[in-house]
């Protein structure tokens, strides 16, 4: 069942840079797809278009399984995790994870059990009342992941999320993301320039090339971690 269908998408910025050229990609429910390629090959641009955060210059993008709003964009089903956790320093962990629910008009008290359950899935059940400044880099990233998951999205987009973390923390978070993928049935698109990370995590690797950005190879993986 396709969640995202990109057809011949090109993206040219006003600067003239052709960031994507004729990219076609269908991502099905349940997949863990890595978008792999060197810096500048268009991975982030592709991910933003998939998220509905950026327009394509030509081609088509569709979200067949999502509710589409008046602006033609998917509503509610897609969450994004960036390399920078961008937490609100004046809010506790609980308050930070509450934010996307607050934006949907759900109060802290109504969201309480969902927030605490989501914090437990990333191992932060004891840190609900802590402030971001009290947390390590890896823990901040876990809060960012919890904030993305609390709305129960169908699709989780991650843009080089762990690139700034040390190797041990990064490996732990990779294992957490894999466990979440197994437990929740969520679909993941994970941008990375690490061949190791893409092979460790995903069951499909889409390799991109630069100048112009395009899909170079699309490889299904046989892994020991298959969910089916
Ligand atoms: P990646 O994520 O693979 O590193 P990006 O999608 O960030 O690649 O960038 C692809 C190309 O588009 C690069 O040449 C980059 O410099 C350019 N680019 C990205 N964003 C913009 C922008 N807002 N304006 C102009 N050029 C951009
Ligand atoms: P709550 O969900 O608890 O109502 P609020 O967004 O109202 O959260 O903010 C909680 C606290 O953070 C309040 O004391 C508020 O004044 C403060 N606060 C809100 N926005 C900012 C900001 N941009 N910079 C600094 N403090 C802020």
From TrEMBL:
Residues 4-228 form the ABC transporter domain. One of its GO terms (molecular function) is ATP binding. Keywords: ATP-binding, Nucleotide-binding, Transport. It comes from the Bacteria. Belongs to the ABC transporter superfamily. This is NitT/TauT family transport system ATP-binding protein. It comes from Rhizobium halophytocola. The chain holds residues 13 to 240 of 269 of the full protein.
